[in-house]
Amino acid sequence: MPRTKVVIVGAAGETGTSITNGLLERATEFDITALARPSSVDKPENKLLADRGVKVMPAELFGSQEKLVKLLTGVDVVIAALGWMNQLDQIPLVTAAKAAGVRRFVPCGFITVAPPKGVMWLREQKEEVYNHIRKLYLPYTFIDVGFWYQFATPKLASGRIDYAFMNPGANVFVGDGNAPSAITDLRDIGRYVARIILDPRTLNKMVFAYNELLTQEQIFHLLEKLSGESVEKQRASATQIHVQVKAAREAIEKEPLQLSNVMQVSAAEYFLSWGLRGDNTPEYAKYLGYLTSKELYPDFEQIKYVDYLKEVLGGKAKPIYANLKLG
């Protein structure tokens, strides 16, 4: 069978790297091209991609539409994995993909399950892209993955696992800590994507790919049990979360291009969505119309959360966002 031609935008980022790795694990099935800004093509991370067999091509999403269409002509699948600040950069990419006859577009989803509007600013940004895809009648698959293990894991007071870059807000204990939330190892995302984009059942569908369903109480308890240390709970009531969300929304409405505002509103609304409302569950995903990875791929061999924690505690976990300071 001919290999599926895949173009990835954002292949060198955290999610993009996982996706690239997942496709490269099945290299005989995929022909992979990464699009990068012309100024970034020669950066070490893109040279590493090239060394691994990925074709790296320069592209400007807001440049010539004709050139973008030419790059995408003959491509089976386009996957976008862009940062929080750049979600709407996908709009010209979607338009070009339609003109080029791309057979499946996977936009930058890859977050927790949430309703389309009214709860998460970040979700609303992504939904603008989704609407543009549907408006153009472009074949798609929308993929969400829950919260990463790497973000769901709190810090220990000793600092011994700080090296792995835990989420600085992961010690915030939302409400009573008993809301179930789906979590996934970052490394498994790409392995899910590799299966999803070859699966005819997922065309023009939403897919929720996740590993485990745990509460914060369970996560904190498991880390304490394995580490032999206590984990600080920075308790946040529903009232406190709603106050944070209101302030964050006001800030981002005034300055939507300010990174600190994007991070503030995203953090507050994640707490609201998965912590208070309980949105990030397979049950709610099914209600919204998602297929789930558990139904589609019961044979998927996921990385267990307990095994991830053992890696972290053993000093063997790979740091994420090593060059980014969030607090």
Short description:
InterPro entries: NAD(P)-bd_dom_sf, NmrA-like, NmrA/Isoflavone_reductase-like, PCBER-like. This protein is α/β, with parallel strands linked by helices and 327 residues long. 42% of the residues lie in helices and 15% in strands.
List keywords for this structure.
42% helix, 327 residues, five-stranded parallel sheet, globular, three-stranded parallel sheet, single chain, alpha/beta
Task: Give a written overview of the molecule.
With 327 residues, the protein is an alpha/beta fold. Helices cover 42% and strands 15% of the residues. It has 13 helices and 13 strands. The protein has helices at residues 14-24, 44-51, 65-72, 90-100, 121-135, 149-152, 186-196, 216-227, 238-254, 259-277, 282-288, 293-296, 305-313, and strands at residues 4-9, 30-36, 55-58, 77-80, 104-106, 141-144, 147-148, 172-174, 181-184, 205-208, 212-214, 234-236, 290-292. A five-stranded parallel beta sheet has the order 3-2-1-4-5, with helices on both faces. Strands 6-10-13 form a three-stranded parallel beta sheet. 40% of the residues are buried. The mean pLDDT is 96.
